[in-house]
Design a protein that fits this description.
Chain B: Belongs to the binding-protein-dependent transport system permease family. Chain B: This is ABC transporter permease. The structure holds two protein chains of two kinds. Helix content of chain A is 70%, strand content 0%. By secondary structure, chain A is mainly alpha-helical. Chain A is flat. By secondary structure, chain B is an all-alpha fold. Chain B folds into two domains: 28-70 and 224-289, no CATH class; 82-219, MetI-like fold (Orthogonal Bundle), CATH 1.10.3720.10. Chain B has 13 helices and two strands. Chain B has helices at 9-40, 44-47, 62-69, 71-103, 110-122, 127-136, 154-164, 169-177, 182-193, 195-211, 214-219, 228-236, 259-295, and strands at residues 247-249, 256-258. In chain B, helix 3 (62-69) crosses helix 13, helix 4 (71-103) runs antiparallel to helix 10 (195-211) and helix 4 packs across helix 12. Classes of the chains: A mainly alpha, B mainly alpha.
Chain lengths: 319, 296
């Protein structure tokens, strides 16, 4: 063993790479401990639940372990296809998610572009500070605020009555037809400023010389936005678009759980809520896990589509 | 507001409209919060008549007194403070530790570890398998359910790693020559120079912990262990369809509080701590968002 050091300078014997590997591992023992603590955590809290998905293909109940439960194949998936709630749940999930994506994704970019055009740095900071405040409120508190605003005697009804737009107060949260609008608007109110931060950061790194050159060429404010700012932050937009699409089916749950009730159920029941309802409230674990798996598959497909779209757009350079 | 550049009429008009638009956005953002605040500061039965928009009509702090006197709310507040404090410290420390290990060059198995983590960003078990795991781990109705399942996040690990990789290598080398172990390098050198990223992650996770009601809702039955947001959820969301209002005599005897006004006061009390800390941490989270999203 005391020949270890000189050995590095001679031809390695067949056994030495292995020994070297063990020695390296030994010098890394502290750092490996740190890393493995993280890996063990991931195996328990990420990978065991992934394994747990197989209860979707089994007849699981709480008196048996997962491996003891008998296989039933696609039984629960077939049952979901015959479920009366299927169409409604799918329509609400996809509908709310897509509208959120098409409104909630571009608006922060537009907001950031216009915020960037403010000449006073102080005023810009002020608007920013205020615009991300709602991000820090919980959906529970926001749900409370909305319930107060949208109540019979709430401020929205008062304004509309005063303007003679309606002649009877409306119970907005009890009517399915208003639910999507409430969801989309309140989400925008909460997240507009926060989502704009990243675009503002990207815009601030665009070289000022490009704007000066464009000004000399006679470009106006909108032309500079369109021909310089947007192309410069294109890669940020692409990455965030992929992230937005891959998370689109997850973005609703906290909010919907707070705003839904039995009266607006036909517009508010989404896959996540249905999983919660069948799984945790009715204890139909296998059925619920099957529905959750269907959602994951849809989310994965959306992710691949979004990735494909941004790849294509960036290659053919839309801007 | 003045620049040396000559402004055309069109430019001036653009600036004017843009400024007005921004003021409008600020108003729309702040007003709903203001509305809740002034209504919570108004005497309960009077507030039921509506029409309080700018300032309390009959000023009263009875609602807040009632909130602080109610045992259930104070217990829930204590649980929230505890879970936010313990959860945030534990999450930041554990995630930073793993990130430090993962970011070390030449770590045996490093690529596999990072692949394992990346997969978790896109796939998960979902609600039911996670619930069954938590149940099997005996974490139901256990305070640790707020801490252990949220010790680690691979997304936050990426933010930490990006930061750690920019720490000059010489700093660690010098400590190593002085005989420092990996643990003491992490604790005494890496952590202290990483305060900006620690503050960012702590803010993100702290706000999440403070606002999370779902964990308390599905894993906790014992009301002594429920956080304030879960408490509020049970009051707010479940009564939103029936605007039932019960007036009760306030502690002073002359003024009254209603379930509605207590609800508003609880919302204010729940939110105030966050509103107070966030302007101070603003510079950190803006920086953190940049590290996390552009490079990650």
């Amino acid at each position: 063993m005391n020949k270890e050091l000189p050995l590095q300078h001679v031809q390695p014997t067949p056994s030495s790479p292995k020994r070297k590997w063990w020695r390296k591992l030994y010098t890394q023992r502290h750092i490996q401990t740190m890393a493995l603590l993280g890996v063990v955590w991931m195996i328990i809290f990420n990978y065991i639940p992934m394994y747990g998905i197989i209860i979707a293909f089994k007849d699981y109940d709480i008196i048996r372990t997962i491996s003891e439960a008998p296989w039933v194949g696609f039984e629960y998936f077939r049952e979901f296809l015959e479920d009366d709630n299927l169409m409604n749940v799918i329509r609400n999930t996809i509908g709310i998610s897509l509208i959120k994506l098409f409104i909630g994704f571009p608006l922060p970019i537009i907001f950031a572009l216009f915020l960037n055009e403010l000449r006073s740095v102080k005023f810009k900071k002020f608007v920013q500070t205020i615009s991300y405040l709602p991000h820090f409120l919980s959906w529970v508190v926001l749900g409370g605020i909305l319930a107060t605003w949208l109540a019979d005697v709430g401020i929205i009804n008062n304004i509309l009555l005063w303007l003679n737009i309606i002649d009877q107060p409306i119970t907005y949260l009890a009517e399915p037809k208003y639910f999507w609008t409430i969801i989309i608007t309140s989400d925008l109110w909460k997240e507009l400023g926060w989502s704009a931060i990243i675009y503002l950061a990207a815009i601030s790194s665009v070289s000022p010389e490009m704007y000066e050159a464009a000004t000399i060429d006679g470009a106006g404010r909108f032309q500079k936005m369109w021909y310089i700012t947007l192309p410069s932050i294109k890669s940020t937009i692409s990455i965030l678009f992929i992230l937005a699409v891959s998370g689109v089916l997850n973005s609703n749950f906290d909010q919907i759980l707070v705003l839904r009730n039995s009266l607006n159920d036909s517009a508010s029941n989404v896959i996540d809520y249905y999983v919660y309802q069948t799984g945790l409230l009715s204890a139909r674990y296998s059925y619920s896990a099957a529905i959750g798996l269907i959602k994951s598959v849809i989310a994965l497909i959306l992710l691949l589509i979004a990735n494909g779209i941004t790849k294509k757009l960036n290659d053919t350079s839309l801007f | 507001m003045f620049t040396l550049q000559r402004k055309t009429k069109g430019e001036a008009l653009f600036d004017l409209i843009n400024t007005i638009g921004m003021i409008l956005i600020c108003f729309i953002t702040l007003y709903p919060i203001w509305y809740v605040l002034v209504n919570s500061l108004n005497e309960g039965t009077d507030a039921m008549r509506g029409g309080i928009y700018w300032w309390p009509r009959v000023f009263s702090i009875e609602n807040f007194k009632a909130v602080f006197e109610s045992a259930g709310i104070m217990t829930a507040m204590g649980v929230t403070v505890a879970k936010t404090a313990v959860g945030t410290v534990a999450h930041v420390f554990f995630t930073a530790m793993v990130a430090y290990a993962f970011s070390r060059r030449g770590l045996i198995g490093g690529k596999i570890y990072i692949l394992l983590g990346t997969i978790t960003l896109f796939f998960g078990g979902g609600l039911i398998p996670t619930f069954l795991l938590i149940r099997d781990l005996q974490l139901l109705d256990n305070f640790l359910v707020y801490i252990i399942p949220f010790l680690f996040s691979f997304f936050d690990l990426i933010i930490f790693m990006t930061f750690f990789r920019e720490i000059p290598e010489g700093l660690e080398e010098a400590a190593r020559i002085d005989g420092a172990s990996d643990w003491s390098i992490f604790l005494r050198i890496v952590l202290p120079v990483s305060m900006p990223v620690i503050a960012t992650i702590a803010l993100f996770h702290g706000v999440w912990q403070w606002n999370d009601y779902f964990t308390g809702m599905i894993y906790i039955n014992n009301t002594d262990l429920q956080p304030i947001q879960t408490y509020l959820y049970r009051v707010v969301a479940q009564s939103s369809s029936n605007q039932m209002m019960v007036a009760v005599q306030g502690s002073a005897g002359t003024q009254t509080v209603t379930s509605q006004s207590i609800k508003l006061a609880t919302m204010v009390v729940t939110t105030l701590p966050i509103v107070f800390v966030y302007p101070f941490l603003q510079k950190y989270f803006v920086k953190g968002m940049m590290i996390g999203s552009i490079k990650g």
